[in-house]
Amino acid sequence: MTGPARRLRSIGWGDGLFRGVLAALASVVPLLFVGIAGLLAVSAWPSIRQFGFSFLWTSTWDPVADVYGAAPMIWGTLLSSLIALIIAVPLAVGVAIYLTEFSPRWLRRPVGTLVELLAAIPSVVYGLWGIFVLIPLLRTFVVPPLQAVLGWTPFFSGTFFGNSMLAGGIILAIMILPYISSVSREVLAAVPPSQREAALALGATRWEAVWSAVLPYARAGVLGAIVLGLGRALGETMAVVMVIGNRHDLSVSLIEPGYTMASIIANEFNEAAGLQRAALFEIGLVLFAVTVAVNALARLLVWRVARESAVGSRAI
Amino acid sequence: MMPRAVRRRVFSRLMTGLTLLAAVLALAPLFAIFADLVIRGASSINLDFFIRNPAAAGQTGGGVANAIVGTLIIVGVAGAMGLPVGIGAGVYLAEYGGGRLGGVVRFLADVLNGTPSVIVGIFAWTWVVRPMGHFSALSGAIALAVLMIPMVTRTTEEMVRLVPHSLREAALALGFPRWRTTVRIMVRAAWPGIVTGALVAVARIAGETAPLLFTTLGNLNFKTDVMQPMQTLSLQIYVFATGPFEEWHRLAWGAALVLMALVLLVGVVARAATQKRFRDG
To answer: Is A67 helix (H, G, I), strand (E, B) or coil?
Structure first.
C-alpha cells in the first residue's frame, strides 16, 4: 500500500475511535436514566406487591403495624407546589414582562442577573432562612391577620406552630421564581419584534401590545416556564424538609404542618428498613415519574417558542 | 368618565407599574436573604471558625474546618468524575448529535436535569453505599457527579454549537481529520463557554444537601479519607439549623455565609471566563 493511502486509512480509524469514545460518554446519560428508573422500580417492588394501587390513596403511615400509604405526602407535595405557583407565577411573569418590554435597557442585565441569583442560593440556606427569618415573620405579621379574617375557613384553621404548609409554599415560591422568570424572559425575547410593532402601529398602548400581541404568541413558552417551575417545586427537598413540619396528616389547612414526597425520603430513609424502605422507594418512583412527565411537558412547550434552548440547564 | 383613549393609557401605565412592582417584590427576598446571611453569619466568623472542628453538643466555640475541607474534597472528586463525561457527551451532541442517540441523550439530559436530587441520593445509596456496606464521601461525590453530568452535557453542547460553522469547514478543507477539527478547532473555540458551564454546575452541586444525606452522611471529626463519612458545609448547616442549641444556630449561619460566598465566587469566576467572548443572555 502506498504512503498517502495508508495515511488516509489511519485518519479514518482515528475518527471512528473518537466518535466511539464520545458516543460511549453520551450513552452515560440514558444509562443513568434507565438505572434510576429500574432501581426505583425494583427496590419499590415489595411495597408495590403488598399495597397495590391503594398505596396512592391510603393515608396511613404506620411503621409499627408496617402499613404504608402515600396519600398525605402526595397531597402535601401538590398543595405546597400549588401555593408556590400561586405566589411565584404573577411575580415571575411580571418580572419577565417588565425586563423584556418596559425596563430601561441598562437595567435589564443587572436586574435579570439578580433575579437569577436566587437560583444560586443553596436549598439548605433557604431552609435556614425559612426557620429563623421567614417563620418568625409569618408568626408575627402574616398568620394572625390571616386567621382573623379567614380563620373560619378550613384553609386557615388550627394552630400555627411555625413549621407549616404555608411556610413551605412560600419558600418554594421564592426558589422557583428565578426558573420561571428566566425561561419566560427567554421566550418573550424570542417573540419577533414585528408582533409588537404591528400592535403599536394599530394604535395599541404599550400594555395592550404586550397583552394582545406578545403574550398570545409566547403563551406556550410561558406555560412551559410555569410547568418547569412546577417540576422544581414538586421535587425540592431540603428547604421543604426544614420548614414544612414533617407530619403525616391529611389536612387542607395551610397553617398546619405537612409532608411532601421528597421530604419524607430525606427524613426517614436512613432509619427505614424492610417494607418501610420499599415504601419510600415507591414514593421515589412516583415522584420520579411525575417529575419526568412534568419536565418533558415543559420542554415540549418551551421548544414551541424558543427552539432547542437548553431548558433549565442554566442557573446563576 | 374619562375619555376612552385616556383610560387606556392610564391602564397601560398601571400595568407597567405592576410589572415593575413584581420586579421589586422578586428582588426583596434576595436582598433579605443576603442581608441576613451577612448580619447573622459574619458575627460568628473568626479564626476559630476556619481552623477548629465543631465543639461537643451544647458547648460554645468550635468551627467548621472539617466541613469546609470536606466540601472541597467531595466537590473536587465529583467534578473529576462528572465533568469529563458531561463535556464528552456535550461534544458528542454538538458534533454527531443529529441522529437517534443524539435525540435520546438530549431529551433525557433535560429530563434528568429536572429530577429531584434526593432521588439521585437514593440511587447512589443503592449502587454504592449498600454494596460497600458503609457510608462514604465517595458515594456522595458519585451522586453529585450524576447531578452534574446532564447539566454539563447541555451547556457544553450549546457552547460548541455557537462556534461558527465556517471554522469547521476551514479546518476540514485544510485536510484536518474530523476528530482533530473537533478537538483543536471547535472545542478550543468553545472552551471558555464550556468552562463557564462546568463552573456553574460545580457551583450548583456545592450547595447540594439531599443527595448527601444517605451517602456522605456527615462527620463531626476532621476526615480526608473519601472512603469514610465526611462533613460538608451543606450537611453541617442542616444538622445545626434543625438542632436545639443556640451555638449550633450561630455556626449554621456562619457556615451558610461561607457556603454562599463559595458558590458566588465560583459563579463570578464562571462569568468572567466568558465575558470577553460571548454575551450571555
So the answer is: strand
Query: Which residues does B208 contact at the CB level (< 8 Å), separation at least 6?
Result: A122, A123, B117, B144, B147, B234
- The C-alpha cell of A98 is what? 417588565
- The whole-angstrom distance between B15's CA and the closest CA on chain A is 7
Tens digits of residue pLDDT in B122-146: 999 999 999 999 999 999 999 999 9
> Running along chain A, 316 residues long, what does each successive block of 10 average in pLDDT?
58 84 96 97 95 93 93 96 98 96 93 93 97 96 92 89 95 97 92 92 94 93 94 96 93 93 96 94 97 93 68 42
Give A151→chain B minimum CA distance, Å. 26
Query: pTM of the entire structure?
Result: 0.93
Sequence letter at residue A299 = R
The β-bridge partners of A258 are: A245
Alpha carbons within 13 angstroms on the beta-carbon side of residue A92 total 33
Is pLDDT of B279 > 80? Answer: no
Q: Which 8-state DSSP code applies to residue A55? A: G
> Which CATH architecture describes the domain B63-275?
Orthogonal Bundle (1.10)
User: Please, which residues have CB within 8 angstroms of residue B11's CB and are 6 or more apart in sequence?
Assistant: A205, A207
Rounded CA gap, A256 and A245, in Å? 8
Closest CA to A313 of A114, A119, A90: A119
CA distance B104 to B116: 20
H/E run at residue B130: helix B130-132
Give B174's contacts in chain A (Cβ within 8 Å).
none
Partners of residue A68 on adjacent β-strands: A61
Domains of chain A and any CATH numbers: 51-305 (1.10.3720.10)
Contact: B149, A28; criterion CB under 8 Å: yes
Closest Cα of chain B to A148: distance in Å? 25
CA nearest neighbour of A189 among A115, A89, A101, A119: A101
Q: Can you tell me the distance from the alpha carbon of A157 to that of B120, in angstroms, rounded to the nearest whole number?
A: 37
How far apart, in whole angstroms, are the C-alpha atoms of residue A289 and residue A261? 12
Closest partner CB to B267 (pick from A120, A242, A270): A120
Q: What is the C-alpha separation between A27 and A39, in angstroms, rounded?
A: 18
Q: What tens digit of pLDDT does each residue of B156-170 get?
A: 999 999 999 999 999
B17 interfacial to chain A (CB closer than 8 Å): no
**Under 8 Å between Cβ of A216 and A103:** no
Q: What is the pLDDT of residues B71-91, one digit of tens each?
A: 999 999 999 999 999 999 999
Query: Given the DSSP bridges, would you call strands A61-62 and A67-68 parallel, antiparallel or unpaired?
Result: antiparallel
The predicted complex's ipTM stands at 0.94
